[in-house]
């Protein structure tokens, strides 16, 4: 943290006072919230994309002070402290003899951040309600510097306060957000208070019914991030669509004047580009280079330097191209088959959150022979995505548009677009991310069709360099023919289909006889799977036995069908590991969805080998 001499601090305070006096008429208009609203951004040049809050990109390269660690907490199951009655957010202590407040923080109840609250204290296991988190910190901010508090994710809704003043709220459990603290910092101690609520909501994304554990709390890293007055907010340094050597990107500089000089360098390739910001703070970046292209076989990353007069950031970025040609997916111009696996962000019966967690999970995927991981059913933490970049694992990343979304809700479209922008904004420079998933198992109807086709367009505006997909419900059977009739197919680049023939749906014909009707686009089987409890053995044709033999046979049969689909471009078994789900109430399930190829402890079921052989030996 910056420690400054007092005289400098006083000069700064004086200047600030003068600035505040000048700004008074404007400030008087700002009611209630004193924090600066998030900068509104255009996500891509030159497209007229929507607007969204824009957390700083590339946190690892910034001057940061981590707020991870123990936070004091107050458990508030009925969210009684959020209104004016208890007003926990005012964070008061009694000062007169007659005063008292029905809340208080001390060090006897604390929780680790990052981490879900449900698994850290027994009494919080089933909590779907509110927890107040409090952290005190001191920060000496130098003259001309800015400070932000950045949250990697808080499930589901967060209201953030500093020293009793509201900074703002954020909805959505899996994407980053931030608030500026610059003008609100106090000398000495500052108190950050976060009200996190994980109620399942009818208008939520996901909505009220979902097949995973609703881990609540400050589940991801929290950082104070310091920047200069004018700072690099975000950038996209990516190959132009359909090009293997031309970069067409942009850098967004916030808080500065137009025509600022921006430099982008790739020292290894002797690239040195100088460009200028426009009136909106965007500088376009174009150059050609002979890249060693990123691929799962060769996940080459280049050190990129982005700088202005005030700031210099470095980041490792891979360059690769993704495209669709007819029903093929092309990586760097060559046809690609995705040997995938689905993954939940869970490990050791808790929400995964660290790089070490990510490493354990992705290593398992690699041992299976996968080159592709579908991050179900929400954006996973940034550590994992960055690691996938280095390991050479392609990713499908999706927003939690899961069964039961209320597309009729008036605020829904804006919510979906914001979530999508937050996900894309965080990971737009990650070579690993190949597909943006916009939905999983939503039933066609006019409202949903309109909403999701608009969302697909929004994804393309936000990021023209990746492919847009969604996981659709299983096709219908007519005699031997399977037809994917969902109108959303028209809006997607790659069509994901979840099918559970042989588990939820009986096989209407023998797998070899099933004929999939082509629809002119690449097909991924984005889910297929059956349950088995690890170590449980029995007949391979009795589903209710929950045994490994049944699960293995399920996959053998499935592969007999899948091998016969000419336009199949990838398979993604459901799921890598057993995961917690309160809707799984059979004694053999015991609160776990048991469709894992591995148990929750990483033990290999028989089905693991079936998929591994298919991936490794068949050399697809
Ligand atoms: C699905 C869902 C997934 C479930 C899975 C299951 O279709 O997309 O979230 O967990 O089926 O096991 O039922």
Tell me what the structure shows.
It contains 7 helices and 35 strands. Strand 16 and strand 17 form a beta hairpin. The chain has 620 residues and is α/β, with parallel strands linked by helices. An 8-stranded parallel β-barrel has the order 21-24-25-26-27-30-32-33, surrounded by 4 helices. A 6-stranded antiparallel β-sheet has the order 3-2-4-9-6-7, with no helix packed on it. It folds into 3 domains: 2-228, Sandwich (Jelly Rolls); 236-320, Sandwich (Immunoglobulin-like), CATH 2.60.40; 323-619, TIM Barrel. The site of (2S,3S,4S,5R)-3,4,5-trihydroxy-6-oxo-oxane-2-carboxylic acid has 9 residues, from loops.
Quick synopsis:
By secondary structure, this protein is α/β, with parallel strands linked by helices.
Query: What ligand species are in this complex?
Result: (2S,3S,4S,5R)-3,4,5-trihydroxy-6-oxo-oxane-2-carboxylic acid
Q: Which bin fits the share of residues in helices?
A: 10-25%
Tally of DSSP β-strands: 35
Query: How is the largest sheet built, in terms of strand order?
Result: 21-24-25-26-27-30-32-33
State which percent range the strand residues make up: 25-35%
Question: Any idea what the CATH superfamily of the largest domain is called?
Answer: Glycosidases
Q: Please tell me the CATH architecture of the largest domain by its name.
A: Alpha-Beta Barrel
Shape: globular
Number of helices: 7
Major sheet size, sense and barrel closure: 8 strands, parallel, barrel
How many structural units, i.e. domains? 3
**Mean pLDDT metric:** 91
Q: Uncertain runs with pLDDT below 50, 5 residues or more?
A: 1-53
- Cα Rg: 25 Å
Terminal CA distance: 52 Å
**Which structural category do the helix and sheet elements fall into?**
alpha/beta
- According to CATH, the fold-level topology of the largest domain is TIM Barrel
Query: What is the CATH C-level name of the largest domain?
Result: Alpha Beta
């Amino acid at each position: 943290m910056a420690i400054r001499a007092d005289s400098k601090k006083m000069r700064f305070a004086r200047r600030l006072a003068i600035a505040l006096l000048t700004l008074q008429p404007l400030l008087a208009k700002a009611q209630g919230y004193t924090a600066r609203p998030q900068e509104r951004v255009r996500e891509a040049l030159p497209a007229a994309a929507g607007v969204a809050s824009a957390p700083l990109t590339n946190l690892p390269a910034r001057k940061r002070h981590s707020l991870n660690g123990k936070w004091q907490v107050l458990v508030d199951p009925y969210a009684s402290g959020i209104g004016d009655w208890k007003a926990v957010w005012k964070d008061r202590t009694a000062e007169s003899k007659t005063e008292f407040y029905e809340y208080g923080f001390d060090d006897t109840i604390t929780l680790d951040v990052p981490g879900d609250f449900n698994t850290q204290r027994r009494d919080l296991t089933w909590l779907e309600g509110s927890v107040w988190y409090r952290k005190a910190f001191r920060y000496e901010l130098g003259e001309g510097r800015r400070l932000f508090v950045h949250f990697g994710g808080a499930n589901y809704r967060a209201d953030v306060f500093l020293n009793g003043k509201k900074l703002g709220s954020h909805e959505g459990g899996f994407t980053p957000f931030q608030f500026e603290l610059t003008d609100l910092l106090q000398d000495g101690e500052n108190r950050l208070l976060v009200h996190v609520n994980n109620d399942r909501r009818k208008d939520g994304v996901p909505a009220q019914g979902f097949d995973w554990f609703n881990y609540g709390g400050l589940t991801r890293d929290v950082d104070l991030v310091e920047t200069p007055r004018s700072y690099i907010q975000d950038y996209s340094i990516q190959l132009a669509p359909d090009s293997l050597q031309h970069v067409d990107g942009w850098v967004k500089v916030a808080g500065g004047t137009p025509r600022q000089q921006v430099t982008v360098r790739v020292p290894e390739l002797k690239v040195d580009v100088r460009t200028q910001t426009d009136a909106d703070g965007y500088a376009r970046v174009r150059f050609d280079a002979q890249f060693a292209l990123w691929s799962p076989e060769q996940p080459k990353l280049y050190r990129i330097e982005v700088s202005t007069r005030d700031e210099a950031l470095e980041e490792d970025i891979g360059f690769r191209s993704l495209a669709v040609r007819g029903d093929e997916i092309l990586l760097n111009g060559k046809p690609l088959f995705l040997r995938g696996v689905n993954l939940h962000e869970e490990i050791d019966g808790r929400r995964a959150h660290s790089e070490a967690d990510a490493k354990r999970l992705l290593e398992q995927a690699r041992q299976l022979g996968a080159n592709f991981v579908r991050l179900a059913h929400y954006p996973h933490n940034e550590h994992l995505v960055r690691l996938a970049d280095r390991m050479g694992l392609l990713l499908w990343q999706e927003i939690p548009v899961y069964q039961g979304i209320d597309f009729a809700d008036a605020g829904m479209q804006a919510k979906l677009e914001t979530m999508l922008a937050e996900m894309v904004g965080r990971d737009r420079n990650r070579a690993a991310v190949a597909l943006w998933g916009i939905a999983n198992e939503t039933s066609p109807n006019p409202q949903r069709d309109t909403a999701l086709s608009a969302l697909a367009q929004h994804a393309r505006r936000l990021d023209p360099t990746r492919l847009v997909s969604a996981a659709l419900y299983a096709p219908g059977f007519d005699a031997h023919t399977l037809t994917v009739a969902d109108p959303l197919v028209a809006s997607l680049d790659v069509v994901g289909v979840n099918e559970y023939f042989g588990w939820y749906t009986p096989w209407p014909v023998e797998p070899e006889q099933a004929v999939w009707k082509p629809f002119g686009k690449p097909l991924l089987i984005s889910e297929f799977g059956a349950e088995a409890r690890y170590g449980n053995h029995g007949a391979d044709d009795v589903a209710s036995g929950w045994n490994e033999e049944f699960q293995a046979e399920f996959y053998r049969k499935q592969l007999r069908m899948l091998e016969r689909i000419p336009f199949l471009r990838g398979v993604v078994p459901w799921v890598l590991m057993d995961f917690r789900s309160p809707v799984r109430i059979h004694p053999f399930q015991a609160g776990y969805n048991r469709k894992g190829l591995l148990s929750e402890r990483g033990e290999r079921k028989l089905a693991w080998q079936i998929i591994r052989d298919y991936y490794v030996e068949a050399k697809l």
